[in-house]
Design goal:
The protein has 519 residues and is of the alpha/beta class. It has 15 helices and 16 strands. It has an 8-stranded parallel β-barrel with strand order 1-2-3-4-5-6-7-8. Strands 9-10-11-16-13 form a 5-stranded antiparallel sheet, with helices on one face. The protein has a 3-stranded antiparallel sheet with strand order 12-15-14, with no helix packed on it. The protein starts with a helix and ends with a strand.
């Protein structure tokens, strides 16, 4: 068996190494694919910097298993909890692999129009639907990936329907592309069980192909196109081939051409690993030199951004109102795009607008993940991000049926209730001279400073140490959503506020302070 598997990999590697004469092309316009051009000409659009809040939905066939993120990779790791879940729910991955999970994903209850209305009610100013994840399945009528939602599973153009709903409700529309990371991601499926009744039996990642699909549900489709170009296990640290990168680039151009997107999220880092928009494998020197010298936007990344910006401008009478984000970007390149933080937030006010990508309940759907409302968690993240010059992009998992859990819906409605009272402290604001202290956060607009305070109790006193009479002269204090006149007094130490008998907002109450002179 091991000899047959090795011979198969030799064949696959020879298949993979077919030369390509294709090159990258991009829309001509104001931007050239250089850091100098990108940093010199790009400006973050106001709809984004002032809108502050977007909602994101990770919808892919991985939701079908109801077992969370990275399911397509971990189902092939013997002993992993998601592998055990797969064996119980479906079958052994030599008999029922991820390709078959894709076919089970149906979205039979999905109503994008009503869901977009809910996101609008929650206060979102833009919406992001996932275009593809590391699992390599495109969520649109993809020209360059036959494994897509129009052909397989729900048989619907998921991105197209999201776009139609976003346009109806006046939300800017974007997508996220994650399949740059597919290379090496399915290496788990190129291994085998090391014990048990299926020991040494290849998983479908290796065993299934276009020929073996005759008479099966996937007849006519090539599983290799889903599982990425086959390659020997253990090459996850090696850079992908030029052919793989070119196909990803074509898929990116396809989605830009079809959906007139305002926003594009790259699930990539600036750092020096192969999966982050590196140069093609045949141009990279030794591993040691690559780790020292390599940067992600050699060739493809910078070309993709220039293409996106130029395409947008050419389609919108020369206006540049689009956004692209990436993670771990050095300071000198942050004027070329928006820097995304997936894990953690900055500890200071950032000079450039930045983004926090945040999963409220995880990225992909897991059954039972919402055991309680998460309104306070969401609002805490929102006020913290905005106080530091950021924009919050909040992901809400969606079930394989195309619905949100009931407690997720309640959370979104409560966020909307809070925004109905307090949105003026979020939209169109900028950071004040300090973002706040402890759990109190500040924003400013004109001569107003908004003070967002959690967990207040009625009929108590609130002391704000950043507003002493020796520092800031306050001329008025108003509690948003409250019709009562608020009693307050400044002294040389702090601003003292007497809280009313009832508080208007859930979790965070917001005070508007009018300053005689705003620093």
């Amino acid at each position: 068996m091991k000899i047959r598997v090795c011979l198969l990999f030799v064949t696959l590697l020879l298949w993979q190494c077919k030369p390509s004469t294709e090159t990258l092309t991009y829309e001509q316009g104001k931007f050239e694919p250089t850091w100098e051009s990108l940093t010199a000409h790009y400006e973050v659009p106001e709809w984004y910097s002032k809108g502050k809040f977007g909602i994101w939905v990770h919808a892919s066939p991985q939701d079908e298993a109801e077992a969370g993120d990275w399911y397509a990779r971990n189902l092939y790791t013997q002993g992993h909890w998601q592998n055990k879940h797969h064996l119980k729910k479906y079958a052994h991955p030599s008999e029922f692999g991820y390709k078959d999970v894709c076919n089970e994903w149906k979205l039979e209850e999905w109503q994008p129009d009503s869901m977009m209305a809910l996101y609008k009610r929650a206060g979102a100013r833009f919406f992001v639907g996932m275009g593809n994840h590391h699992c390599n399945f495109d969520m649109w009528d993809s020209q360059y990936q036959e494994w897509n939602s129009k052909n397989i599973g729900p048989k619907r153009d998921v991105l197209g329907e999201w776009k139609k709903a976003a346009d109806k409700y006046g939300l800017r529309f974007g997508t996220s592309l994650h399949a740059i990371n597919t290379w090496g991601w399915f290496d788990t499926g190129r291994q085998i069980d090391t014990a048990g009744i299926y020991k040494d039996k290849p998983y479908d990642v290796v065993a299934a192909n276009k020929e073996s699909g005759k008479g099966q549900w996937w007849e006519g489709y090539d599983p290799y196109e889903l599982y990425s170009p086959p390659h020997e296990p253990g090459t996850n640290g090696a850079p992908p081939t030029k052919e793989f990168m070119l196909k990803f680039y074509k898929r990116f151009k396809d989605v830009v051409a079809k959906y007139d997107i305002d926003y594009l999220y790259w699930d990539s880092h600036y750092g020096g690993v192969w999966r982050q928009f590196v140069r093609f494998a045949d141009t990279i020197p030794s591993n040691a030199e690559r780790s020292l010298r390599e940067t992600p936007f050699k060739n493809m990344g910078k070309t993709a951004i220039a293409h996106f910006y130029n395409t947008y401008m050419n389609n919108h009478d020369g206006k540049l109102e689009c956004v692209t984000t990436i993670k771990s970007v050095p300071e000198e390149y942050r004027n070329a795009l928006v820097h995304d933080y997936e894990h953690g937030t900055p500890k200071v006010i950032m000079p450039q607008v930045w983004e926090r990508g945040y999963g409220l309940g995880g990225w992909h759907y897991a059954k039972g993940q919402y055991k309680e409302k998460r309104t306070k968690q969401a609002l805490s993240m929102l006020v913290d991000v905005v106080s530091k010059n950021g924009v919050l992009l909040m992901n809400i998992p969606m079930s394989p049926r195309g619905t949100h859990d009931s407690l997720a819906v309640v959370t979104l409605k409560e966020i909307g209730d809070w925004m109905a009272i307090n949105s003026e402290s979020i939209y169109d604001t900028k950071p004040w001279k300090t973002y706040g202290y402890e759990n109190i956060r500040y924003t400013k607009k004109a001569n107003k400073v908004y003070v967002m305070v959690p967990d207040l109790l009625p009929n108590k006193n609130l002391a704000l140490k950043d507003f002493s009479s020796t520092g800031e002269s306050v001329s008025n204090c108003r509690l948003l959503g409250c019709n009562e006149n608020i009693k307050w007094m400044q002294d040389e130490v702090q601003l003292n506020i007497d809280l009313p008998e009832s508080l208007p907002s859930l979790h965070y109450n917001v005070f508007e302070l009018t300053l005689k002179s705003l620093n």
